[in-house]
Amino acid sequence: MRIAIFASGNGSNFQAIADAVAAGKVDATIAFLFCDKPKAFAIERAKKLNIPVITFTPKRFEDRMAYENEILKHLDEEAVDLVVLAGYMRIVGPTLLTAYANRIVNIHPSLLPSFPGRHGIQDAFEAGVPETGVTVHLVDEGVDTGPIIAQEKVAILPDDTLESLETRIHQVEHRLFPQVIQQLAEKNK
Ligand code: GAR
After folding, report:
1. Which of 61, 119, 120, 187 is deepest in the core (most CB within 10 A)?
2. Is 108 a residue of the active site?
């Protein structure tokens, strides 16, 4: 299975997947990292790992369709089977959704459908709920919607700070996402 990973920021989930591939725990090839933010730290990680990077911002294009058509060109060229959104902070448009129907997965740091959006961890923390978690799901036209593939709960402890909760959520993400990608690789065989 050939995958492309899309990231917009730190890239710790990208790193976890790349490490799992290198360790033989995920039977996939990372064709490239796509980054919509030329200064994102994820790009530095990819360079260190010798993973090809493709980066451009939507600003360069007339509209979202033109932007996504350019992405699609790279996905086609590299014969990518699965698109993995790992902190890609954009809504996926019809161009990519149609071309990669049911072949785009996203990770989100909450128990969806609770707390979608950009601040899933903080929103759960501030809501005072006893537990939150991590969701991996197929992407559709909504924000953090689409059929759920895997979910894992994370308790919010009485002495948690936002930072301590973030750390535990990320630990779960870095374990769960490679596991799900490996399951999808098995199915793709
Ligand atoms: C992750 O926590 C991911 O779940 C979240 O962004 C973070 C990216 O971290 N995604 C969303 O909130 C999607 N709505 P990373 O760049 O270190 O992988």
Report:
1. 120
2. yes
In a domain, 40, yes or no: yes
Q: Which residue has the tokens 């033989």?
A: 24
Measured in Å, residue 88 CA sits from the centre of ligand 1 at 7
Ligand 1 midpoint to CA 87 (Å): 4
**For the segment 10-61, what is each residue's pLDDT rounded down to a tens digit?**
999 999 999 999 999 999 999 999 999 999 999 999 999 999 999 999 999 9
Q: Which domain holds residue 27?
A: 2-108+136-153+173-188
CA dihedral sign, ordered 58, 170, 121, 152: positive
Query: Which atom in ligand 1 lies closest to the alpha carbon of residue 16?
Result: 18
Q: For this complex, say whether ipTM is above 0.90.
A: yes
pTM: 0.97
Domain tally, the chain? 1
